[in-house]
Amino acid sequence: MHLTLQGHDRYFAVEQSLLNYFPPNAPGTAISKLSQGALWQTASAVIGFEGKRAKGFSRAKPGDNPDHALKTAFYRAARQLTEPPPWGALTGIRPAKKALEILKTGLDPIRELKLRYDVAEPQARLAAGCADFAWELEKKLSPYDISLYIGIPFCPSKCAYCSFISTAAPKQKHLIGKYCSTLSREIRQAGELCKKLGLRVRTVYWGGGTPTVLSPEELRLVFAALGESFDLNGTWEYTVEAGRPDTITEEKSGILKSHETTRISINPQSLSPEVLAAVGREHTPEMFFEAFSIARKTGFESINADIIAGLPGDTAESFRHTLEGLVGLYPENITVHTLAKKKGSRVMEDNIPGGNADVVEESLDFAEKALLGNGYLPYYLYRQKFTSGGRENVGWSLAGKQGLYNLCMMEELSTILALGAGGVTKLVDPATNRIERFFQCKYPLEYLERCDKINENLNMFEKFCRNKL
To answer: How far apart are CA 33 and CA 274, in angstroms?
Structure first.
């Protein structure tokens, strides 16, 4: 759809709305206009689609950020031409954060999300339930509590749906050892700084990439740097992504457990051999079951498993088989994603079919009923662009087994210090609702060559913390 802006340059805000209501590359035109007056900023939208034309209006006070008014105007026009999306006028990736804001005022989030934003009943309940968990955790956090993210940007191979910057390990094997040494030095610098600032690490999360693609020796090296540099006695949760089952061995699982890891993520994405082959996952369903068994035998009492609805070749029946297979194992967390066709992924670039809206809808409806029926509750959620039907990604948990890092990160409850390539440090000041981000070098080679960037990021982190504390 051809989008024209008049009187403003808030392209991103309007693009979010457009993608929420119309499929990518949909034919038609849309004009988003902002007029400045003495009493109001008036936002309007005119949309032409499938031979029909609709208008929408909204307004904001002078000097206020006009994004909400622009989105609302677009929504009021779009809903005359298409079925309202399940999340109504909400376009952000964190709908539970909006529910949390409402909850803190003493109002009913479900009612307010429906009234203010036309959110459908199931989605309003979902966001409100996740907000309850976020609020309980927020009450326990102090300004001195942070989370630590350790980035390992290597995978055995790249999945067709992936747009992350992770590098196929076989192609970059010569870099991995040096990467772990550089990361260990950064960890030691960060640990010294956190001790000086009096900060407490409450959650640790190794992500990427697939951290368990590292060799046993490399894993021990990074674990040793963390253990020597940070006081982790007060840590509530220590998670390591072991997302690819083909990277799990008894030795590696034992290393994770012996270094205080409390939570592990083993992600089949699907238990259909045909679907796994279609997306380039170089493992079988049997390898997932074996990896899960190894983790249990090693003593892990908190395991997460990710699956994706709408993968190429997936059907509602094969998705149901996947979910039933997982529930039979009774992992503490099951995260149900909706396929997003992201820029930079083979699914998008090669136009690989996937994400049929009817299949996704049936799959997610079944997932909700099955998980609720087996004692799981939704505890965190987020949304992405280009998902089928505008649907969401939801983390489900057994009682008392919520992933605390996920809540801190997604609901922006506390500062996240990210170390390693591709990491994004998120600085959170709850007292002022101020949030700042800064980025580490994206790629492993760039990270290895830019020690100045490591120092620059830690200096910015220190400055922010001193101002906040």
So the answer is: 48
pLDDT tens for residues 288-347?
Answer: 999 999 999 999 999 999 999 999 999 999 999 999 999 999 999 999 999 987 777 777
Cβ–Cβ < 8 Å for 311, 354: yes
Q: What's the pLDDT tens digit per position in 157-215?
A: 888 888 776 566 667 788 999 999 999 999 999 999 999 999 999 999 999 889 999 99
Residues 6+ apart with CB under 8 A from 149: 205, 206, 207, 405, 409, 416, 417, 418, 419, 420, 423
Can you read off the two tokens belonging to residue 189?
A: 């610098």
Calculate mean pLDDT across residues 31-41.
94
* Cα dist from 53 to 26, 58, 107, 118, 214, whole Å: 15, 18, 37, 21, 56
Give burial (CB, 10 Å; 0-12/13-18/19+) of 351: exposed
Cβ contacts of residue 289 below 8 Å, gap of 6+? 329
User: Among 418, 355, 346, 363, which Cα is nearest to 384's?
Assistant: 355
Whether residue 264 contacts residue 296, with contact meaning beta carbons closer than 8 Å, is answered with no
Rounded to a whole number of angstroms, the distance between the first and last alpha carbons of the chain is 48
Taking a C-beta distance cutoff of 8 angstroms, is the pair 39, 45 a contact? no
* List of residues 6+ apart from 433 with CB closer than 8 A: none
Is pTM beyond 0.70? Reply is yes
Q: What is the mean pLDDT of residues 15-42?
A: 89
**What DSSP string describes 311-330?**
-TT--HHHHHHHHHHHHHH-
